[in-house]
Amino acid sequence: MWAGLLNFLTLLNSSWHIEISNMQENYDQRDFDQATDLTRQRRRYQRRPKRPANILSQLMARKGYGQTKSNNELDEVWNDIVGEKWQSKTRVGNISRGTLEVFVSSPAVNQHLGFKKKKLIADLIKRIPQNKIKDIKFSLGSIES
């Protein structure tokens, strides 16, 4: 009885060993195929040289030269909207996330323009909608430009 059981276990063990080794070979081949597919997909091609126009536009955007025209236009529109009385007492700053920063000369100017804020925003939106101004932040600061 023990001898039969021992023979059965030996036969079973050898057949498992053959199946496991066959499975291992299949997995090794599959892993190799997947790795070669990945290397083909990741193959990098040599970059083409950048065009001078693209380099120039990137440089202008990075340095902010394009905003100079926009700021000049914004200054002109702001001065038209607030009128001559407040032109000398305010200076337009930058637009950040839809908020226009305006520097004012005194707290009294800050308060007065604060009362007119909604009308100023509406006028700015009408005149220069591309800037997408949603709010105005008044700050005490230097007015000399």
Written account of the structure:
It is a single chain. The chain has 145 residues and is α+β, with helices and mostly antiparallel strands. The protein folds into 2 domains: 1-42; 67-140, 2-Layer Sandwich (GMP Synthetase, Chain A, domain 3), CATH 3.30.300. It has 6 helices and 3 strands; from the N terminus they run H-H-H-H-E-E-H-H-E. A 3-stranded mixed sheet has the order 1-2-3. Helix 3 packs across helix 6 (117-127). It is elongated, with a radius of gyration of 37 Å. It starts with a helix and ends in a 5-residue tail after the last strand. 10% of the residues are buried.
Radius of gyration over all CA atoms, rounded = 37 Å
The rounded distance between the terminal residues' Cα atoms is 106 Å
Strand content: 5-15%
Give the overall pLDDT as a whole number. Answer: 77
Sheet with the most strands? Answer: 3 strands, mixed
Listing every helix as H and every strand as E from the N terminus to the C terminus, the arrangement reads: HHHHEEHHE
Alpha-beta content class: alpha+beta
The percent range for helix content is: 55-70%
Number of helices: 6
Per the CATH scheme, the topology name of the largest domain is GMP Synthetase, Chain A, domain 3
Approximate shape: elongated
Q: What is the CATH level 1 assignment of the largest domain?
A: Alpha Beta
Which CATH architecture of the largest domain would you pick? Answer: 2-Layer Sandwich
Task: Outline the low-pLDDT stretches.
Answer: none
